[in-house]
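tl;dr need the bound structure. longer version: we got a ligand (adenosine monophosphate) that a collaborator sent over and nobodys looked at where it sits. i said id run it. heres the input, straight from their email, havent touched it
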Amino acid sequence: MRITGLPPYDPTNVFAKILRGEIPSKRIHDDAFAVAFHDINPQAPVHVLVIPKGAYVSHADFSAKASDAEIAGFWRAVGKVARDLGLESGGYRILSNMGEDGGQEVPHFHVHIFGGRRIGRMVPRAEG
Ligand code: AMP
């Protein structure tokens, strides 16, 4: 499913279910502001998702509505997860898809962390 515009938060989305523990995940981090777990369909040797605990649809929603504490806590968690995964020496990429052109599929804000190999082009060539 592609997301268009800024829809209201859907509490039945898959990451909301992971947050509530209704479906399993390979969780590697959990604090007051963020949870991190391995992506179910990894695109790199290391592919982890970091999500805020709050109900935000996308980065647009999070950056506009989250409190300073939530924003700081979330981004500190992204850095800590990458550090704890041992990615700092080799490097890594963080990425967040937003909305239809961004290719966002899950409507709960998340940041991808990719590492463990040369990740390649910053943005792939346009499709078609
Ligand atoms: P995005 O296109 O940025 O919305 O990416 C959504 C990501 O969520 C994809 O990389 C999926 O592989 C991943 N994903 C979907 N369902 C699950 C799940 N149950 N557990 C872990 N990752 C998931």
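gonna send this back to them w/ a short note. The pocket of adenosine monophosphate is lined by residues 14, 25, 39-41, 49, 97, 103-106 (CB under 6 Å).
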